[in-house]
Amino acid sequence: MGEFSNEVSIQTSSKKRVSVRDVFNISSNMMVTAFEESNDYVPKIDPNYQFNKEVTLAILAGFEHNRRVMLQGMHGTGKSTHIEQIAARLNWPCLRVNLDGNISRLDLIGKDTVTLKEGKQVTEFQEGILPWSLQRPVALIFDEYDAGRPDVMFVIQRVLERDGKLTLLDKNKVISPHADFRLFATANTVGQGDFSGLYRGVQVLNHAQIDRWNIIATLNYLPEEDETNMVLAQVEVNKDIVEGMVSLATFTRKGFVTGEMSTVMSPRTVITWAENYQIFGDLELSFKLSFLNKCQEEERTLVAEYFQRCFDKELVNELAI
């Protein structure tokens, strides 16, 4: 991960109150705080993004009332993007960290580094991402939260309280959070471990860790009509074809729930299929290259049946190419 200089500050503008109904086009009388202007740390707005009402209100409660919010859901449902797109419309600086196995305690807290000053080597403490963010008006998102290493999770646990302070033992320093610091996380399993085999590498988190998250919301896949519109907003493909693609994706998701499928078509995969269809102009070829080749060989006959139901044509050869 990159280095974060102690000299970097995040300039934010004055604040304003905005209507959730007006900004997010969902039925709610809720008013929330936003910054007047954007900066380099604010995500770019996707004008075609479709907000889930329940999840949007949960995330907005995190921003407005400084609640710790975790989003749970299957891969490809857009958990992190949902938080980012809300931050974008609030002009709230945002930073994402993926808690994969390479993120260590030192990455989070910081470490001593050797630098050159006035031609001399000096040892200075370089703050990690957590104290760096904690002191700034930043929405920090921990992606793949249930994949974090145990030593990393105990560091995060210190700041999960609303006014949680971080103690840097090496520096004999206690950091109090900035008034506009916010903390979010995304996860596939909510710390319960993975029994499906789909999310290998996730950890079982202790109850004290999970209990410190004030709000846990679930983000499911969009209804088929909404998912179709989302794909059409990003890729210029015939609507009937996109509807078939989304229907096939729904079949794979239902097959996963019943144990017939081990691989799922996410909305991201559907978009990739549509994009590849634009490139090749061949529905079957683009499907094989986008999804079928990911499937186990014994599942491809079932996937070919899904294809036939959705497009009323046989998948000529379901073997990988």
UniProtKB/TrEMBL annotation:
It comes from the Bacteria. SUPFAM superfamilies: P-loop containing nucleoside triphosphate hydrolases. GO terms for molecular function: ATP binding; ATP hydrolysis activity. Residues 69-192 form the ATPase dynein-related AAA domain. Residues 17-42 form the Cobaltochelatase subunit CobS N-terminal domain. PANTHER family: MAGNESIUM-CHELATASE SUBUNIT CHLD, MOXR FAMILY PROTEIN. This is Cobaltochelatase subunit CobS. It comes from Parashewanella curva.
